[in-house]
Design goal:
Strand content: under 5%
Helix content: over 70%
Strand order of the largest sheet: 1-2
Number of strands: 2
Mean pLDDT: 82
Number of helices: 12
Structural class: mainly alpha
Low-confidence stretches: 232-239
Shape: globular
Radius of gyration: 19 Å
Largest sheet: 2 strands, antiparallel
Distance between the termini: 42 Å
């Protein structure tokens, strides 16, 4: 047990856990309003740890989508975690056993990856365990409180609070879109394609899960073709 690394992970994980609590609160309310029970919503948050994947999955569940639809949607949305795991595995000390590596990979989220990758030199898996010990309860407890609140609050308040998730997504996409035209193009392209699926009669018949899959692959593929990230000789990258 690396106590120092664990304590540092706990400290760095506090703001992550607080942020997760606020976002998962909305997920808990939406899950209950969509027909899931409180324990089902909490179990999803405890075992998935992915905001975008969970909200997309919730939409598929409420629309009675297929298992294949769910599997493909989660694969595409969460594929970035595979890349993060590859990168973070190089930050771990070489003598870290496979068991610890698997546990670390379970708790990888965008934020935990960010704080782990920013550490100088090699890191101990106990640093990640410390961050996970705050982040995972924050995400799960937020879901629990949101689910309970969804059962107690009047409908108009639940509807108002459920808008918070869209505010979070806007906060994620607007800053990089203002700095990078390629990101702005991806955002606008995704909006345009999603609009087509919602207004064209033939496309409206396609389920929400496959709409996410098609939109992601189409827009990301076009962006990768027309706006590739090139590596210079020095190793730096520019778009």
């Amino acid at each position: 047990m690396d106590n120092e690394s664990f304590k540092k992970g706990l400290k760095d994980g506090i703001p992550i856990g607080l942020g997760y609590f606020a976002v998962s609160f909305t997920f808990g309310m939406m899950a209950v309003s969509g027909g899931l029970s409180t324990w089902q919503a909490v179990l999803i948050s405890l075992t998935n740890l992915t905001s975008a994947g969970q909200f997309a999955g919730l939409d598929i569940i409420t629309s009675s989508g297929s298992y294949w639809e769910m599997a493909l949607t989660q694969l595409i949305i969460n594929l970035r975690y595979c890349l993060m795991s590859f990168s973070l595995s190089q930050k771990l000390k070489r003598d870290v056993p496979w068991g610890h590596r698997y546990l670390v990979s379970f708790g990888i989220t965008d934020e935990i990856f960010g704080v782990s990758a920013s550490q100088e030199g090699k890191i101990s898996p106990f640093y990640n365990y410390g961050a996970m010990c705050v982040a995972i309860p924050g995400w799960t407890l937020g879901t629990l409180v949101g689910a309970i609140s969804g059962n107690l609050l009047p409908d108009f308040m639940v509807s108002a609070l459920s808008v918070a998730i869209y505010g979070m997504f806007l906060a994620v996409i607007i800053p990089p879109a203002k700095k990078n035209r390629a990101v702005l193009g991806v955002v606008l392209g995704a909006m345009a394609v999603s609009t087509l699926f919602s207004v064209v009669p033939v496309l409206q018949k396609i389920s929400s899960g496959f709409v996410i899959i098609i939109t992601t692959l189409l827009v990301a593929g076009i962006a990768a073709h027309f706006c590739p990230i090139e590596e210079e000789e020095g190793g730096t990258r520019e778009s």
